[in-house]
Amino acid sequence: MASSILARVSSLVRANVNSILDNAEDPELMLDQLIRDFTENIAEAEQAVAQTVGNLRMLEEDLSESREASTDWGNKAQAAASMAGQLTSQGKSDEAARFEELAKVALRKQISFEQSVTQMHGQVTQQTELTDQLKDGLNKLRTKREELVSKRDELVSRAKMAQAQTQVQTAVKNVSVMDPTSELNRFEDRIRREEAMARGMAEVSASSIEEQFASLDDAGAEIEVEARLAALKSGGSGGSSGSSDSSAPAQGVS
User: Contact, 31 vs 151, CB < 8 A?
Assistant: First the structure.
């Protein structure tokens, strides 16, 4: 179990998240799925770490007990051998033989526990390495999950900001005086047409009045012509009435 979880943890840690997101149709959904995968694997890795740590502690306890037992049986073998030696020196061969046999039994036990110590020491070493790998992978998974959550929040924030900017630009476009399709510009064009119409009507009105005054001037000139013609017919000078009035005072003085 621990080995399979470690393989999955290593695969997730090595995964190129940026490449996955680049190839995803919906990066936000892909990030959500990745976060779920990391969360599930973190939970399993935590269980595996707890289990391997528990197994490691049991092995360490067994190793310690085997070492103590090996030492204890060694001491017993030493004690039995010493007693056998003493009995032999006393000429008690039968009793000495019995303690020598006990010493051999104790030595066999010591050797058995020494072998167990050697075997369990290797197991403890392997279990310690596996536990360290799982702990390291678990820490990396947690770190990468935090990065994914942060990246997801960043992407969501950027998406919302981009959407808001698009809405602002659309609103600005609708009121831009440089945009010929905007409501403001169409309203301005309508006002300009109305102003142009007013100026046109004013010019037309002014032209009509000028023509009327011009006709009055023409009528006055015609009256002057008729007056001078009448004067010529009556024997006058044919000049203007203003000229006749100015000559009268001169005759009175002479």
Answer: yes
Number of domains in the chain: 2
**Which has more pLDDT, 175 or 12?**
12
Same-domain pairing of 94 and 191: no
The structure tokens listed for 106 are 């104790």
Q: Where is the domain boundary, 123, 153, 175?
A: 175
Query: Alpha-carbon distance 127 to 182, whole Å?
Result: 74
- Position 120 pLDDT exceeds 50: yes
Rg (CA), the chain: 61
196 pLDDT tier (thresholds 50, 70, 90): confident
pTM over 0.90: no
Question: Alpha-carbon torsion 142, 7, 49, 66, what sign?
Answer: negative
Given a contact cutoff of 8 angstroms between Cβ atoms, the answer to whether 81 and 99 are in contact is yes
Statement: residue 183 has pLDDT above 70: no
**Same domain, residue pair 133 and 226:** no
Q: What backbone phi and psi angles, to 5 degrees, belong to 227?
A: -65, -45
Residue 192: exposure state from Cβ atoms within 10 A (0-12, 13-18, ≥19): exposed
32 occurs within a structural domain: yes
Distance CA 96, CA 134 (A): 56
Question: What six digits make up the tokens of 83?
Answer: 């007693």
